[in-house]
Amino acid sequence: MQVRQGTGKLIFERAREMLFVFSKSFNLMGHIGSFISLIWEEEYCGRGSFQLVLANESGTIGEQGGADLVGTRIIRQGRYIYQKGKKTAMVIRSIRVSEKDGQIIINGFTTLDILRQRVRVGTTKIENVELSMYHIADYVRAEIEPITGYNDLRFKNYSIAETKGFEQTLDTQFTNWNVLDMLIALGNQSGLGFFMGFEHENQTHVFTVYEGKDFAVANESNNPHVVFSEEYGTLSDVEIVDDKSIFANNAWVAGEGEGNRRFNQNVSTYPINDRPDAIDIFQISVDARDLRQTITDESGQETLLNSYDYGRILEGRGLAKLTEHPHVDTFTGTINPIGFGIDYNLGDIVTCISKKHNRRIDARITQFKEVTEGNTTTLRLTLGEPEITLKGEINTWL
After folding, report:
1. What's this model's pTM, rounded to 2 decimal places?
2. Which domains does the chain have, with CATH numbers?
3. What is the sign of the dihedral through the CA atoms of 128, 130, 136 and 141?
């Protein structure tokens, strides 16, 4: 593989990877050897997405042949697109045929999207985050839905990985949340990532929780440092940002109750013994009516939380909301990602330094996007977490 530098981009010239199409039961339906373009996007804590553009007659015909897209072609709703070398696959959610352009446009998401098809009924209390995430993800395998008693909704060809002993904890709860939305919320609050492995040989999806490695300069472990800098020629187009337009450091969280009898809890991001001047306190209100003081476990047993424990749960919701209101004091820039996938990967924390502006950030790689057109693949990374910038990310075209 040859690499050449473009303006603000890293461009790979390589042989095009073949795409394989599998049925929902993991039967290989065929392959796609020719396409106009492919966008493949994975996220550290999200479902990612893809777009595949084909010529109307570009090798998508199955053994039966014919011109009926729905009836005989291998591209169908709910089937999986797999690319060799990827740890996950994409599920087809949209197919559009354009006679005017002579194209078929297929869109979808990583196979994490199947978890979006289920709502976890009842209240889920969170303590150890990794164990909770596996418990939530395992819900879709339940033979009988614990609260409602519905049955025969379990996913087949689905499993969860073994736990790794991550120690992150949260004191919060969710009531009647979508399964995937719960996992994303927990990942964003804890720093853990997750993906849906695609093990076509074993005919199973494997839900996996993991934690990116810390390659930042501030990290004192034995991990090597990954640094992007103007001085190294790996960082350019620096832009300084200092913005408090959406900043908040104090929240009133309203839980159960009505009017003056509503349960209110205050939480802040500054130390109690180091409170800023009143003019420097920025408050928000958080509606947490969905967090119930009475929780129901999977056996149907109800437990009334005392005021302290319920207050802690409301505090957790308030702190999560405050992360969406950061003081932006950082910079953005374009980086050169040589070594991605080898020296560092999705979910890892790296350092960006500008000595000229006396700025440094340690940011997580939260997303990668590969755009393939012809024999050229352009790679884009997104760095950052909610507290990094106004939009919660540093977008860098590579």
Report:
1. 0.76
2. 2-111 (no CATH), 118-210 (3.55.50), 227-243+327-396 (no CATH), 250-322 (no CATH)
3. negative
